[in-house]
């Protein structure tokens, strides 16, 4: 690109969002040779104290950034991919999905405890129905006695609940803690066999207007094809379940390699009631999809199997 104007990157104001956007800004500067400035935008999700499920799920973090894009106030925006609604607006392009960070959930607990070492009646904070459902299901299946407590707030606020003694532990995303340099505060990594992450967790989405062909091409330098195909399958499953970003759905597509050669992709997914009494968990393995349509089909096929086993009845109110 010969244009050397400063690119304006729209981001939420939270510490995590600013850190993520800073990493993307550095990568865009290297790829394009153009200066990039961060434009911090306040979203309704950042200022509301209500539970996310009551204000429209994590999609509320996305709307203000997309509005700024469409008004021409910013040139591109960075989202946590797991916050993006599954339907992509025609006037916006998902220009790049960079290589994914660690998708796992983690525990930050008092006294550096592991999840399975928490005392009986341990109070575990999370704002996620997905995490609540899977933690309660695991506890029921393994004779653990825990209480899940709904919380909101940024990383500092959540960890402070543990430091102040209000909670025994909180559940957070490994990717977020790593990006803000606080990975050393993790006391336990939750295996994906225990808690499947949110569809797209650990991945970032870089979005711009669909008519900005030159910028789409430049941002495309940051795209990681394997990450894109994996999260496309995960989000296709979420869409086929007609579930919103805040529904109790976990999904993860793994790329299975033989040495250095990626051979297959395994898609695992779970839906459960938040009390952990009922879950539907399935997986499928096949060749790595070579097209967007192939990845979408994989997600839809697994979702259809889950719906056939009663998944719809476990999600509460389905997304409209």
List the helices and strands and how they pair.
Layout: E1 7-12, H1 15-32, E2 36-41, H2 44-47, H3 60-70, E3 76-80, E4 92-96, E5 105-109, E6 122-126, H4 129-141, E7 146-150, H5 155-163, E8 169-173, H6 174-179, E9 188-189, E10 204-209, H7 213-219, H8 225-240, E11 249-258, E12 261-272, E13 279-287, H9 292-308
Parallel strand pairs: 1-2, 1-3, 6-7, 6-8
Antiparallel strand pairs: 3-10, 4-10, 5-8, 5-9, 11-12, 12-13
Helix pairs in contact: 8-9
What does this structure look like?
The structure is a single chain. The chain is α/β, with parallel strands linked by helices. It contains 9 helices and 13 strands. It has helices at residues 15-32, 44-47, 60-70, 129-141, 155-163, 174-179, 213-219, 225-240, 292-308; strands spanning 7-12, 36-41, 76-80, 92-96, 105-109, 122-126, 146-150, 169-173, 188-189, 204-209, 249-258, 261-272, 279-287. The strands form 3 sheets. Strands 2-1-3-10-4 form a 5-stranded mixed β-sheet, sandwiched between helices. A hairpin with a 6-residue loop joins strand 12 and strand 13. Helix 8 packs parallel to helix 9. The radius of gyration is 19 Å and the shape is globular. Residues 52-56 have low confidence and may be disordered.
């Amino acid at each position: 690109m010969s244009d050397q104007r400063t690119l304006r990157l729209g981001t939420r104001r939270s510490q995590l969002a600013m850190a993520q956007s800073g990493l993307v800004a550095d990568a865009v500067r290297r790829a394009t040779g153009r200066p990039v400035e961060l434009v911090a935008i306040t979203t309704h999700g950042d200022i509301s104290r209500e539970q996310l499920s009551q204000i429209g799920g994590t999609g509320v973090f996305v709307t203000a950034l997309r509005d700024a894009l469409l008004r021409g106030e910013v040139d591109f925006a960075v989202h946590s991919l797991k916050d993006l609604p599954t339907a992509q607006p025609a006037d916006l392009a998902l220009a790049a999905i960079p290589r994914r960070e660690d998708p796992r959930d983690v525990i930050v607990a008092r006294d550096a405890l592991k999840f399975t070492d928490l005392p009986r009646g341990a109070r575990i904070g999370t704002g996620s129905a997905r995490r609540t459902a899977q933690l309660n299901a695991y506890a029921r299946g393994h004779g653990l006695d825990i209480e899940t407590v709904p919380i909101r707030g940024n990383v500092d606020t959540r960890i402070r609940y543990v430091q102040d003694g209000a909670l025994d532990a909180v559940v957070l995303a490994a990717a977020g803690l790593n990006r803000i340099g606080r990975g050393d505060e993790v006391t336990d990594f939750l295996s994906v066999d225990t808690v499947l992450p949110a569809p797209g967790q650990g991945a970032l989405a870089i979005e711009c207007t669909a008519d900005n062909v030159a910028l789409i091409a430049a941002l495309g330098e940051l795209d990681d094809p394997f990450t894109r195909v994996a999260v496309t399958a995960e989000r296709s499953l979420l869409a086929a379940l007609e579930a919103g970003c805040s529904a109790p759905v976990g999904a993860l597509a793994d790329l299975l390699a033989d040495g250095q050669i990626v051979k297959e992709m395994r898609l695992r997914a779970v839906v459960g009631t938040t009390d952990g009494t009922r879950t539907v968990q399935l997986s499928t393995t096949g060749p790595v999809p070579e097209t967007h349509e192939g990845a979408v089909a994989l997600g839809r096929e697994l979702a259809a199997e889950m719906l056939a086993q009663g998944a719809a009845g476990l999600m509460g109110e389905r997304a409209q």
